[in-house]
Specification:
This protein is α/β, with parallel strands linked by helices and 131 residues long. The chain has one domain: Rossmann fold. 52% of the residues lie in helices and 11% in strands. α5 crosses α6. The chain is globular.
Length: 131
């Protein structure tokens, strides 16, 4: 089981060639186990990127997210109170991006690695990462 950072979700669906071999291998294994987790905050991040024209999708945003939701091996994890509070109380030093903090808290709460290319997260010692 793994949690995907937002960019990894986008790449996995749209540009898998951008994934590292280790990330791709981890994703392939998680797909086989129906064990790919994505924080719901990532849907918010994708919507924000599209609205700001920093990301262009090949279809309407709602359709793109719905197609991901229909994948049998993907489970979206809502931002519940526990994850929200954990994201605020993560040990320092860690940058203050709220979405990243929620994604990190989701991985920690789920007890699984986070797949990311984000150097700040890769260097954060309190969450297991894959890249």
């Amino acid at each position: 089981m793994i949690v995907l950072d937002t960019h990894v979700w986008v790449w996995f669906v749209s540009n898998p060639e951008l994934l590292s071999k280790r990330a791709k291998d981890s994703l392939d294994a998680a797909v086989e186990e129906n064990a790919v987790l994505i924080s719901s905050i990532s849907a918010w991040e994708v919507a924000l990127l599209v609205a700001r024209k920093r990301l262009t999708l090949t279809m309407e945003l709602s359709d793109w997210i719905a197609k991901s939701e229909m994948l049998p091996f993907v489970k979206f994890i809502p931002v519940d109170n526990s994850v929200a509070v954990k994201s605020v109380n993560l040990p320092q030093p860690l940058h203050n991006d709220p979405a990243d903090r929620i994604i990190i808290a989701t991985a920690i709460s789920s007890g699984v690695p986070l797949v990311t290319i984000d150097e700040k997260i890769l260097n954060y010692p309190h969450v297991q990462t894959i890249w």
